[in-house]
Design goal:
Its cofactor is FAD. Keywords: Coiled coil, FAD, Flavoprotein, Oxidoreductase, Transit peptide. The chain is α+β, with helices and mostly antiparallel strands and 549 residues long. The chain has 3 domains: 86 residues, Uridine Diphospho-n-acetylenolpyruvylglucosamine Reductase, domain 2; 167 residues, 2-Layer Sandwich (Uridine Diphospho-n-acetylenolpyruvylglucosamine Reductase, domain 3), CATH 3.30.465.10; 216 residues, Vanillyl-alcohol Oxidase, Chain A, domain 3, CATH 3.40.462.10. The chain is 41% helix and 19% strand. The protein contains 23 helices and 20 strands. The strands form 4 sheets. Strands 13, 14, 15, 16, 17, 18, 19 and 20 form an 8-stranded antiparallel β-sheet that branches. Strand 7 and strand 8 form a beta hairpin. The radius of gyration is 23 Å and the shape is globular.
């Protein structure tokens, strides 16, 4: 009996193994391709339990079966790809279950755009850790990757907002993960269940290696690499919180079926300081001066992105309504003139200040602008949403622009999410530039300049073996440089297929052995999304890399 037939008998949702469906779910936005044997669309948590339990029992019999969760498929690491069972949530498990005064409960298949629309309507609040892909990503990936974005500078990452997670463990049992007091932890550890076993073993591991774990904490405000063991036990609050481990684990420790997330109300009035740089050498000092005034977000994009935006303005604004499209089209005229006259800046920085009143926001932007007096930069203050829209459009659409508009070339995310402390810019950036310039590809840089998170997207001919070889040649060099500054090889996008083999560069072999122990505690048979976070190899990268554009 086929695997699809066996699964169809035990769930209420849909099971597909036709060529078209398998092809559809073989790709995400990464440089990888893995064709699942079966695609499952669960209707509810009971279906997830049934699928995981089947896989667990099959693995116990020595069969090679695993389960990989997937929501919107916008992952840039291959974290949601598998050649076994792909568990897709967006078809049925796509409901916002509850919106309270300062929280919301959602299923993993809800698109963020729909989640935010509902939370705003019912509470006037949002999940502030949304990523740049907010229009196309879903809630399962946001939590599983520990996403961050433009507002993380002020509001933090997704793990700061997770309150409870409903989890299906690798044996098919269900738990609710939430912060536990130490007495509650002791009670859990007395339970003779798989959950109790997990708490006992994990607590012992963290206690035994406390100093080593704390020393491994990256010296940055954003990190999605490895298992964040340093966040599990909070000695000040005296809590033990498994949500901090499941958040960012890419479905390797348990599968999320429901999320309870805190919401925040944003400041309503904004003003943006736009800084045009032609000399990257002064970037560290510009960032240092602007950060003194506490911007809500501090973003950037480079000249390559700028040029693409000008070239493809109709495509960028085409999805807007008629009047918005006309208004934004006129707003881009100065950028078109810059492009025509050769005045394109090397880097555009966007510092947005959000306060309770328009006057306060404008004053913060003016003070930051005054701080840059005497520096070799051009500046502009955008006071209204209409004025800031074009800058946000370019920044948010940068990766999409590359993916859709460069024929024969592929926007290849592999050094796309590095993070260092902004204080290290003066020495780090020249070293990074030297490494990347040593390769023949062109690349774009965008990202969260305020917290040191750079999205470097090389443009590659993926059908060229030499281009593919460049990827595995450059990655360890860039990651070693990041590790030298105690940064993170991924601030938001996570490890997946692409970065898992290089975690020892960042954390060292001993810490990676602890990660493997954690994986074994939660998933001793390797049921859940194998090869991500632990066990991945450079050969996995090579065998899964696309060979076409």
């Amino acid at each position: 009996m086929l695997l699809s037939e066996r699964l169809a008998r035990i769930i209420n949702g849909d099971v597909a193994d036709d060529a078209a469906t398998r092809e559809k779910y073989s790709r995400d936005t990464s440089i990888f391709e893995r064709r699942p044997e079966v695609v499952v669309f669960p209707k509810d948590a009971d279906d997830v339990v049934a699928v995981v339990r089947y896989a667990y029992e099959a693995c116990g019999r020595g069969e090679n079966v695993s389960v990989t969760p997937r929501s919107a498929g916008t992952d840039m690491t291959g974290g949601d790809l598998t050649d076994s069972i792909s568990l897709v949530f967006t078809k049925y498990m796509n409901h916002v279950i509850e919106v309270g005064g300062d929280y919301a409960v959602t299923e993993p298949g809800v698109y963020y755009r729909d989640f935010e629309k509902e939370t705003l309507a019912k509470s006037g609040k949002i999940l502030a850790s949304y990523p740049a892909s907010r229009e196309i990503c879903a809630m399962g990936g946001i939590v599983s990757n520990n996403a961050g974005g433009e507002l993380t500078l002020r509001y933090g990452k997704t793990n700061d907002y997770v309150r409870e997670l409903d989890i299906v463990l690798s044996d098919g049992s269900q738990i609710v993960a939430r912060p536990l007091s130490m007495p509650q932890l002791a009670e859990k550890e007395r339970e003779q269940t798989f959950e109790g076993d997990i708490y006992r073993k994990l607590h012992a591991l963290i206690d035994a290696h406390a100093a080593e774990i704390e020393a491994a904490r990256p010296n940055v405000t954003k990190n999605s690499a490895g298992y964040t063991l340093w966040n599990v036990m909070d000695k000040e609050r005296e809590t033990f919180d498994l949500t901090q481990l499941f958040c960012g684990a890419q479905g390797t420790l348990g599968i999320i079926t429901k999320e309870k997330l805190a919401l925040v109300k944003l400041k309503e009035k904004r003003a943006m300081l736009v800084v045009f740089l032609t000399d990257i050498g002064i970037l560290p000092e510009v960032v240092r001066r602007v950060l003194k005034f506490n911007p809500e977000s501090f973003e950037s994009y480079d000249d390559q992105t700028f040029s693409l935006a000008v070239k493809f303005i109709p495509q960028i604004i085409g999805h807007l309504g008629f009047f918005k499209m006309i208004a934004l089209g006129f707003a881009f005229l100065p950028e078109v003139w810059l492009a025509l006259t050769g005045g394109i800046p090397k880097l555009v920085l966007m510092a947005e200040f959000a306060e309770d009143t328009a006057e306060e926001a404008l004053e913060a932007a003016k003070q930051a602008r005054a701080e840059l007096d005497g520096m070799a930069v051009r500046t502009k203050i955008a006071r209204s949403e209409a004025q800031t829209a074009k800058y946000w459009t370019i920044r948010r659409e940068s990766f999409s622009l590359l993916r859709k508009n460069l024929r024969g070339m592929f926007a290849a995310p592999f050094i796309d999410d590095i993070v260092v402390h902004p204080d290290d810019y003066p020495t780090f950036l020249p070293e990074l530039h030297e490494l990347v310039e040593g390769h023949r590809f062109i690349y774009t840089i965008a990202g969260h300049i305020g917290d040191g998170n750079f999205h470097i997207i090389p443009l590659e001919h993926m059908d060229n073996p030499a281009a593919r070889a460049e990827i595995t040649d450059l990655m360890p060099k860039v990651f070693a440089l990041v590790a030298k500054y105690k940064g993170s090889i991924t601030g938001e996008h996570n490890d997946g297929i692409i970065r898992t083999p290089y975690l020892p560069i960042m954390f060292g072999d001993k810490m990676c052995k602890l990660f493997a122990e954690v994986k074994n505690i939660f998933d001793p048979l390797g049921v859940l999304n194998p090869g991500k976070k632990t066990g991945g190899t450079v050969e996995d990268i090579k065998r899964s890399m696309i060979t076409h554009t």
